[in-house]
Amino acid sequence: MNKKVSLGAALAMAFIAAAAAVAITMSASVKMYNSIISDLPGKQQLYSSVSEIDDIVRREYYGNIDNDLLDSEIFNGYVLGLNDKYSKYMTAPQYSEYKSRAKGKIAGIGLVCGWDSSKKQLKVLSSKKGSPAQIAGITKDAVIKKIDEVPVTSDNYEKLLKSFEGEMLATVKISYEQKGKTNIVSVVKGYESQAVTNEINGDTGIISIFDFYNNAALQLKSTLDELLSKGVTSLIIDLRSTSEGDIETAAKMADYFVPLATQNRGMMARAVNKAGDTVETFSSDTDEINIPVVLLINNKTEGASEFFTVTLKSFGKAQTVGNKTHGKCTLQKVFELSNGGAVTLTTANIIPYSGESYEGKGLLPDYEVSLAQQHEPNTAIALKDDLQMQKALSLLRDKNHNS
Fold first, then answer.
1. Spatial contact of 114 and 379, defined as CB atoms under 8 Å apart
2. Which residue numbers in the chain have pLDDT < 70?
3. Is residue 397 classed as helix, strand or coil in its secondary structure?
4. Domain ranges in the chain?
5. Where are the beta strands (DSSP E) in 81-189?
6. Cβ–Cβ < 8 Å for 363, 320
């Protein structure tokens, strides 16, 4: 049964509703206004102090002023004030390089090298098939003597190796020894940097992951397909000293190994901001790899590689050998600026499948094994001297023997 409402009552109700809406809007506006106003004195004081320093410097400073550097350091100082080692300011050139690396587009020559501390020389650990270096004749176990005419030493080899990456079609001059002969070649950079390499030891595939940027996912998938087609029955994945990359790519790579998540709301992991809201989720599908896996880790295993490690362990898909990891369990996002630079900020905590954070604590290995003091991971260490690798191989031999 419909009830009739008088025109006067209807007008009164409409007026009350409008008044309520205005009140709510005014309340919200007042809160926003107060927030802005309360912040204005602080901002004005900040700008005033910077302007005052700038006036004094330009009036009194004896030396020349590099305005671009000055601006860059001001922006950098602001982010440093957050006291967060993972947040940083990038200049336009730094941001451009970051974007290229994140897309896996840094031009390289296809070499992975390591310092042999016993012989005090830089050795080639692998030369990717079809790469500029391989085409130029540089193969595994070659010794790099000079890079762009600079003799290689233990103090400068890491810096010199950066010459192997950079601008597409640029050249790098390499002097190397191979099979008792010294060779000098100019190699043109034009090859996608290697994120994943592999070799086979018996029935075990040994995979080294150097970063978790975008191209690493496809490279790992290709590597897994290749190794499984060759009949490997177990895997060792070397994550020692791997600290670069993003969580999204690490999640894709972990998904190759783990099944569909049945706990944690059906997610491998999630990212939670300071308000407690889930801002990003990482899921898995039904595909998985069902062979024994051992991960090699150390105190420089950080960020994306820790995420990869904790995900495989949480699903019971891998054991770990080595030393406790770094302990970075947060998510960073990059925000582009109008000046061409960018700011990287920590925006959330990662909640892994296990539900336990390892921020600041790291991940403990299942088997604690340390290398001899003179040996560093991802260097030219002989297999017999790599105690962590030997332990992993031993574990897998036992598993294969008992299966």
1. yes
2. 1-40, 106, 264, 373-380, 400-403
3. helix
4. 107-192, 196-402
5. 88-90, 107-108, 111-116, 121-127, 143-147, 150-151, 171-178, 181-188
6. yes
Quote the CA–CA distance of 258 and 285 in Å, as a whole number.
Answer: 8
Give the pTM.
0.76
Q: How far is CA 123 from CA 55, 107, 192, 298, 329, in A?
A: 54, 21, 21, 22, 34
**What letter does residue 384 receive in the DSSP assignment?**
G
The CATH H-level (homologous superfamily) assignment of domain 107-192 is PDZ domain (2.30.42.10)
Q: Can you tell me the distance from the alpha carbon of 299 to that of 172, in angstroms, rounded to the nearest whole number?
A: 33
Enter the DSSP assignment of 262: -
Residue 391 CA from chain centroid, whole number: 27
In order, the DSSP letters of 162-187 are GGGSBSTT-EEEEEEEETTEEEEEEE
**Percent of the chain with pLDDT strictly greater than 70:** 86
* Predicted confidence (pLDDT) per residue in 329-351, tens digit: 999 999 999 999 999 999 999 99
Beta bridge partners of 191: 108
Q: Where are the alpha helices (DSSP H) in 230-273?
A: 247-255
Q: What's the farthest any 2 CA atoms get from each other in the chain? A: 106
Secondary-structure class of domain 196-402 per CATH: alpha beta
What's the pLDDT tens digit per position in 288-330?
999 999 999 999 999 999 999 999 999 999 999 999 999 999 9
Backbone angles phi, psi at 173, to 5 degrees: -95, 125
**How many angstroms separate the CA atoms of 363 and 325, rounded?**
5
Beta-strand pair 319-322/367-368: parallel
Tokens 């706990």, located at residue:
263
Tell me the C-alpha to C-alpha distance, in Å, between residue 347 and each of 151, 273, 277, 279: 43, 6, 11, 9
Q: Are 305 and 250 in contact (CB under 8 A)?
A: yes
